[in-house]
């Protein structure tokens, strides 16, 4: 399912070349991205991939969006947002969506690490559990009922058990399971952080299944070769001025890994 079909950045340039976020994309020749069920924004640090995810999240008013405070007389961030344009996808009957699903969200690596740290602090487990349901739309009455429920106490026991049994990486995978509901658009910013290569592949396989079987759409910022090689994705290379669509094996970061292990090939064959 494709909920967000396309996103266009503004063409306008400013006389001051250092104004954020105009400066991030000023040298990009291509301003429009077309999305697939899974789309990857690849690039090294400061290439703009994370900034674009937050811009999309603000444009669509997604859960998890990060607002940038204005400094000075002009709110350049929100001005930039208002100059962007997007096109939503179509449902199974060919009708344009009027909005993305309500449970769609922008999930950053620091969000996942925050959840892991929260799990590791028993004193805030209940407060955190209720807070997460408030973010999902539970009103005060529903939250009060949740505090008394057997479901909540059982879930807290499971979290405590996971805390004792699993590593940070394994807990991160469990947190992703909780986040990734069916029928939604998810923007993921470097979800591989804290995950071993094996768990990165497991997460990528979960994402593939979500797109294939659970009507999810994903836009992901990553430069992990394990994610890039496992995801059935369209890949935009943000390191190029034209933001070219590339195969994963042609990307600089992946080639670095390939060349490194090829250089040490004899050591693996001993």
Gap between N and C termini: 48 Å
Number of separate domains: 1
The CATH topology label is: Rossmann fold
What is the C-level CATH assignment? Alpha Beta
Question: SSE order, as H and E?
Answer: EHEEHHEEHHHHHEHEHEHH
Counting helices, strands and paired strands, the structural category is alpha/beta
pLDDT < 50 runs, ≥5 residues: none
Task: Explain what you see.
The protein is of the alpha/beta class. The protein has a single domain, classed as Rossmann fold (3-Layer(aba) Sandwich). 46% of the residues lie in helices and 13% in strands. It contains twelve helices and eight strands. It has helices spanning 22-25, 49-60, 76-83, 109-119, 125-135, 140-148, 150-165, 168-179, 197-213, 225-230, 252-263, 265-269, and strands spanning 4-8, 32-34, 38-42, 85-88, 105-108, 185-189, 217-221, 234-237. The strands form two sheets. A five-stranded parallel sheet has the order 5-6-7-3-8, with helices on both faces. Helix 4 (109-119) crosses helix 8 (168-179) and helix 5 packs antiparallel against helix 6 (140-148). The protein is globular and about 55 Å long. It starts with a strand and ends with a helix. The model has no long low-confidence stretch (mean pLDDT 85).
Summarize the structure.
GO terms for molecular function: ATP binding; ATP hydrolysis activity. This protein has 270 residues and is α/β, with parallel strands linked by helices.
What secondary-structure arrangement, pairings included, does this model have?
Layout: E1 4-8, H1 22-25, E2 32-34, E3 38-42, H2 49-60, H3 76-83, E4 85-88, E5 105-108, H4 109-119, H5 125-135, H6 140-148, H7 150-165, H8 168-179, E6 185-189, H9 197-213, E7 217-221, H10 225-230, E8 234-237, H11 252-263, H12 265-269
Parallel strand pairs: 3-7, 3-8, 5-6, 6-7
Antiparallel strand pairs: 1-2, 1-4
Helix pairs in contact: 4-8, 5-6
Organism: Clostridium oryzae
InterPro entries: ATPase_AAA_core, Bact_Antivir_Def_Nuclease, P-loop_NTPase
Protein name: ATPase AAA-type core domain-containing protein
